[in-house]
Design brief:
The chain is mainly α. The chain is built from 4 helices and no strands.
């Protein structure tokens, strides 16, 4: 799954609303993310520590993405968990550029609809 900045570097387009399943008026499909539903299901299972679901999805992930792609996906999931925890525990303040874009990103991804942990 490509990050917003990575997509811009490749010249491809990506609709953030595709992450939440919400469609925008100009969204032509799934946001150009191969295996989006499987990746989202696996990331959610890992985040929620749902071992039963992880066990079911793991072979599907390997089959769809190949072993290297599966490990990349696991690395991204773990990385985002780790980055957030490190920043939170260190008291890292969000920079002005992020804060300027945060409201639009939260709206596009539907993150406000998730309950706080």
């Amino acid at each position: 799954m490509m990050l917003r900045e990575s997509v811009q570097q490749t010249g491809q387009s990506f609709e953030l609303t595709a992450l939440s399943g919400a469609a925008s008026a100009d969204d032509a499909g799934d946001g150009s993310v191969p295996h989006k539903d499987l990746l989202l299901a696996y990331a959610e299972a890992v985040t929620l520590r749902n071992i039963d679901e992880i066990t079911v999805l793991r072979p599907r992930m390997i089959d769809a993405l190949g072993p290297a792609g599966y490990l990349d996906a696991c690395g991204v999931i773990a990385g985002f968990h780790g980055f957030t925890r490190i920043a939170d525990s260190a008291g890292v303040k969000l920079d002005e550029r992020y804060l300027a874009e945060a409201d639009a990103i939260k709206s596009q991804t539907g993150v406000r609809e998730f309950a706080e942990a």
